[in-house]
Design brief:
This protein has no helices and 22 strands. Helix content is 0%, strand content 43%. The protein has 174 residues and is an all-beta fold. The protein has an eight-stranded parallel β-sheet, with no helix packed on it. The protein has a seven-stranded parallel β-sheet with strand order 2-5-8-11-14-17-20, with no helix packed on it.
């Protein structure tokens, strides 16, 4: 449990770590910060942090699985050269932004997640974050589903597995 810190709740900086069953709540910045290679975070609950619930800052070949990320500024934030990471089977809800890519966060995979009730946007792709694959996810009841600029990514639609409710890419609301 990492709760009520003025900065990040848990910071992982060494390679090849596995974190399981952690609660990171009400921290002044990120709940969980991964800045390393080959780290796995499983069954993490990241709630009510001022910054991102989970931040992948320069992380490589790491994974976040089976986690609940709720009530944060940004749910899951891929930032500053985060590369070749996997976000799989997570519940991301009630954040300002659900999943956010920024500043050359490239070649990541986002699949089998539910992203809902984001007050600004479910999925944001900015700052030359390229070649990310986003598929087999449910994006629903977000104020806006997806938006961004300056990035080239692979977004699947209903025909190839992702579900976008009435505000999704097929209607042109970005």
């Amino acid at each position: 449990v990492a709760e009520g810190n003025g900065t990040d709740g848990i910071v992982v900086g060494g390679d090849q770590n596995t974190l399981t069953d952690n609660l990171v709540a009400e921290n002044g910045e990120a709940g969980l910060r991964l800045s390393t290679r080959s780290t796995g975070a499983y069954n993490t609950t990241a709630v009510n942090n001022d910054g991102p619930g989970i931040l992948l800052h320069g992380a490589e070949t790491s994974g976040v699985l089976y986690s609940t990320v709720s009530g944060n500024g940004i749910g899951v934030y891929f930032y500053h050269f985060a590369r070749d990471n996997t976000l799989n089977a997570n519940w991301v809800s009630d954040n300002d932004y659900g999943i956010y890519f920024h500043y050359q966060a490239d070649q990541n995979r986002v699949l089998n997640n539910t992203v809902c009730l984001s007050s600004v946007r479910g999925l944001s792709l900015y700052g030359y974050s390229d070649e990310n694959k986003i598929w087999l996810n449910d994006f629903k009841s977000n104020v806006r589903q997806v938006g961004g600029y300056g990035s080239r990514n692979y977004l699947s639609d209903v025909s190839s597995g992702s579900f976008w409710d009435h505000l999704g890419p097929r209607t042109g609301h970005y």
